[in-house]
Amino acid sequence: MSTTDFQQWMAGIQQRTEVALAANLPACDIAPTRLHEAMRYAVLGGGKRVRPLLVHAAGELAGAAPETLDSVACAVELIHAYSLVHDDMPCMDDDVLRRGKPTVHVEFDEATALLTGDALQTQAFQILSDTAFLDDPSRQLRMVELLARASGSRGMAGGQAIDLASVGKEITREELEFMHIHKTGALIRASVLLGAYCGNQVTPMLDSLDRYGKLIGLLFQVVDDILDARSDTATLGKTAGKDADQHKPTYVSLLGEPRARELADDLLAQALRVLEPLDGSALRLRELATFIVHRRY
Questions:
Q1: Cα distance between residue 268 and residue 250, in whole Å
Q2: Could you count the other beta carbons within 10 Å of the beta carbon of residue 206?
Q3: What is the pLDDT of residues 78-132, one digit of tens each?
Q4: Which residue, 66, 70, 79, 195, has fewest beta-carbon neighbours within 10 Å?
Q5: pLDDT 10s digits, 192-225
């Protein structure tokens, strides 16, 4: 397949995800209107939609229905969006720019931002627990559990807690990896598995996808650290150099940029090897891994 074909596929998934998110978020004219306006502001009209792309790529591999994958894509993207809203608040990373526009607490206020994150999180689980979502309640319950685990203290929230506790400290590479397996990697891994759970998954395939998801989660963070160190605010759509300014441990600060880039290339190679048993059916997952490495924001 050509690069153009992948770009068209990616644009199509991003567009259908935008439509699904707009349909699943409360309208701005429904009370409480200010909260619903903030929810839509936080989610719509921006972002790479990497997690929905992974949902759809893994789901296509498993033969899942696109409409079912839309629901899962919405759920993981709402969890991601809620985490960004909370991470940007003054009590956390205290940032004023996200996806090229003012962060939610700047555009609205801190209390509204807090409630926006809360509401986006619960909206994600409302979507995933809808009785019309799957015809297998036991599998649907496993999916709810997987997303909850990936989002909570043993996943994304726990990783953020470790990140905050590590500011200004010297940590080992193993400690940094542990932090990012949870903070960034857990939701990315869950996106891959949740997509597969929507279709005819089999154990060998799930094992490969689980390993792929873990590798891609780390890969995404390594590239994120490199971009934060070398790119500019206009390109990133968020404040560049913030990690260094806040004395946060990153792969660049720990390894240096050349070795961090080598690590990214190695993780990519590992992820592609993991997919080899799946042959050509895993094409989109291969393309997404390469896209993550070469992204500019």
A1: 19
A2: 16
A3: 999 999 999 999 999 899 999 889 999 999 999 999 999 999 999 999 999 987 7
A4: 66
A5: 999 999 998 677 889 999 999 999 999 999 999 9
Residue with tokens 């956390």: 92
Query: What's the whole-number average pLDDT of the chain?
Result: 92
3-294 classified as CATH 3.40.630.30:
no
The one-letter amino acid at 195:
G
Q: How far apart are CA 155 and CA 172, in angstroms?
A: 20
| Most distant CA atoms of the chain, gap in Å | 51
